[in-house]
Amino acid sequence: MGNEKVAKQTIVVKLGTSVLTAGQASLNTAQMVELVRQCAQLKQAGHQVVVVTSGAVAAGRAALGKPCGHSLVEKQMLAAIGQGQLIHLWQNLFALYGITVAQMLLTRADVEDRSRYLTARDTLTQLLAFDVVPIINENDAVATAEIKVGDNDNLSAMVAILANADKLLLLTDQAGLFTADPRSNPDAALINEVHCITDELKSLAGGSGTALGTGGMATKLQAADIATRAGVEVLIARGSTPNIIAEALSGKAPSTTFVCFKAPVDGRKRWLLAGPKSSGRITCDEGAVTALCDKGASLLAKGIVALSGEFAVGDLVSLCDVNGREFAKGLCRFNHQELEQLKGVHSREFAALLGYIPSNVVLHRDDMVLLGNEAADKPYKTQKIS
Ligand SMILES: Nc1ncnc2c1ncn2[C@@H]1O[C@H](COP(=O)(O)OP(=O)(O)O)[C@@H](O)[C@H]1O
Ligand SMILES: N[C@@H](CCC(=O)OP(=O)(O)O)C(=O)O
Question: Binding residue per annotation — 214?
């Protein structure tokens, strides 16, 4: 950080199991001490820090000392054992720097529901205002399949949106995203800058190469996709590199930066990006895509070509062009049965077809967020690292 004046930023630091265990079966305290020192340095430089921590399952496994953790319920039990140990450790380590920490355990349900999202956001904001470092993990012990995020990469993107963060730093056991998994491809090149998360890029990202990690690079790309769309810059870097937090943020260490071209979105539109899952898909004709993307219009039934999925009034749906590219999402004012009758139809015919007119538009502009994922000519740049 040096002594140079930097604008105060909110930085979310996600610490994967791979970093916290340094490749061993239990938490590596020396590594955690070093990461806390670096977070304290960030705060010293005037930034706000939020930590998204993995490692509860690893800590629980070591504490129990019996072979287990293959089934979901066993993993949940291990997380319940390990979470207490994990937060206790963070609390003691941050206390060495006079920093108070707070624990927040979240599931998808906490961000899906708008009022719960606002509560989590307000708590987080309040903690930061009081100079506390929030330490966040998924509430694994109670996270059923329906409500779990499932991996801390996606969770950290949601947290970055909740915290209105400037940057999300994903620290892992690799220097970033490579053109192939470096564990099995030693010639793989580091991708140092990503401009657009394309299907080609997604195909380069494999799962976790270890028994303890969840999701590998695939979930880190999903996280980068969500966070950059909300205006948060995302970096992936190796957590064990000396002074990595400052070095990655200043662009001095090898890393992958997901450049954010989108202006930050506000309020409800941030929640639309972080919170609800899409329940259906609406395919729009070319005219509708242009009207929505370039002219600030709302979606009319006339521009709908096809639909899929089952959704109720107020559910989140994805809007796609005729090539299947998702370009927006938002809250639909009709259910799927109604829309099946109304697609391609002018609103003046709604009353005759339905017997009532719930709304003249299918998706109002205010309830919609554009994803801005135009195909880029050069989606990424690679770099040789020694
Ligand atoms: N294209 C890729 N570039 C870098 N790492 C990759 C790639 N594909 C898969 N991986 C794997 O992703 C792993 C990191 O993810 P993960 O194990 O989930 O770590 P963490 O616990 O830090 O979230 C790496 O150890 C690597 O084996
Ligand atoms: N919530 C889990 C971690 C889940 C997860 O995504 O792990 P990782 O891929 O190591 O970041 C735990 O605390 O063990």
Answer: yes
Q: Are 256 and 194 in contact (CB under 8 A)?
A: yes
Q: Is the CB of 12 under 6 A from ligand 2?
A: no
Q: Is 190 in the pocket of ligand 1 (CB under 6 A)?
A: no
Helices 216-229, 152-162: axis angle to 10 degrees equals: 20
Low-confidence ranges of the chain (pLDDT < 50): 1-3, 375
Atom in ligand 2 nearest the alpha carbon of residue 208: 9
Q: Is the CB of 94 under 6 A from ligand 1?
A: no
| 236: Cβ contacts below 8 Å, ≥ 6 apart | 170, 172, 174, 176, 177, 217, 220, 224, 255, 256
Residue written as tokens 């927006």?
Answer: 328
> Which CATH fold would you assign to the domain 278-370?
2.30.130
Give domain 10-269's CATH superfamily.
Answer: Acetylglutamate kinase-like (3.40.1160.10)
Q: Which value does ipTM take for this structure? A: 0.98
Q: Where are the domains of the chain?
A: 10-269, 278-370
Same fold for the domain at 10-269 and the one at 278-370? no
